[in-house]
Amino acid sequence: MSRLLRTMVPLVLLVAVLMPAAAQNTIKIGMLVPLTGSAAADGTSALNSVKIALEQVNAAGGVLGKKVELVYYDDQADAKQAVALAQKLIDQDKVTAFVAGSYSLPSRAVAPLFQEAEIPLIAAYAIHPDVTKAGDFCFRNGFLGFVEGRAAAYTAHKLLGAKTVALLTSDNDFGRTLVTGFKEYVTKYGSGLRIVAELTYPMSETDYKAYLTKIKEANPDVIFASGYYFQTGPMLRQARELGIKAKILGEEGADSPKLVEIAGEAAEGFYIVTNFDRDDPRPIVQDFLKEYRSRYKIEPDMVGASAYDAFMILIDAIKQAGSTNTKRIRDNIARLKNFNGLTGIITGFNEIGEVVKPVQVQVVKNGLFRHFGVVNDPALIQP
């Protein structure tokens, strides 16, 4: 061997040793959120909440003796954008785990990529079943759409005392899965509850008066009006302008302070089934509420709380694994029991990665979402 080669070999070995060490100074967790476009309020809430969680973790010493780094991108709630960004998180950023902080369409699109890469994914609030169907590395901390739909029907039937109900839902993955769950409850458990009108609207809709006029003619006791806050807000206002007196029930898509801002006084008395109880007395909840309000000068919401929990579940699983081995992390998520989360005591995940926990019912009082009830019947909340 020449003198030059004898000199180069130790240098090559030294670089090989130092490069992985440098790359592992932090533990990277990836996240996609919609920070621009119509869903920006939800994405901003999810990111802000995870930033609080990140600071808490790092202030306590990080994980496995290392700081945690959050690598996030704006997917604009668009599946095509999300796929490209997910590939970047996997191939370039080399994330250890991933928080899906976006809607169902982009979350469905990226789940198979993280499954193939064997990187644990937790969907914070996307409700479509395809997210966890991607494989055993994919979990959901929020509710499956069918579960939330059943809980909405139970709320209308048992908590609001309805005998007749009208369905007004968005014509997308979100709306369709909710309606399926709602109808399932009516068929199995809804003795005395009758659907008197069923209408769908396109995602691009902004004027709901034609739909609401038809519903007014049906004169239901309760209207199940599903949609995102930027849809349900105008819907509530237009319903009251038409003189509709029925109780109106929504779901987690409307769980945003922006809903109250858009609907104004028409938001009063609006009910939702959701993933977060602001009146939960546990310190973890009340401390988060205080911190979020102080820091961001706005009310926190379900989206943020769900993303916070998804991040903290990943942190807990990494600690339990004792390493960044993604298979061990995945196994510890699957074994989770009675996790003390913002969105409740999380019993755990079932065999297909779906969360098991009660569904919260909130009502708008004096411009704020407050506790109204809870749905905890195992037959309804089991995925």
Describe the model:
- The N and C termini lie far apart (65 Å).
- This protein has 14 helices and 16 strands.
- With 383 residues, it is α/β, with parallel strands linked by helices.
- Strand 3, helix 4 (104-117) and strand 4 (121-123) form a beta-alpha-beta unit.
Keywords:
2 domains; 383 residues; alpha/beta; 47% helix; 20% strand; Rossmann fold; single chain; 16 strands
Summarize the structure.
This protein has 383 residues and is α/β, with parallel strands linked by helices. The protein folds into two domains: 19-143 and 280-349, Rossmann fold; 146-274 and 362-381, Rossmann fold (3-Layer(aba) Sandwich). The chain is 47% helix and 20% strand.
**Corresponding CATH superfamily of the largest domain:** Response regulator
Poorly predicted residue ranges: 1-23
Specify the CATH architecture of the largest domain: 3-Layer(aba) Sandwich
Total helical elements: 14
Summed over residues and divided by their number, the pLDDT gives a mean of 93
Number of structurally distinct domains: 2
Bulk shape: globular
In whole angstroms, how far apart are the ends? 65 Å
CATH class identity of the largest domain: Alpha Beta
**Total strands:** 16
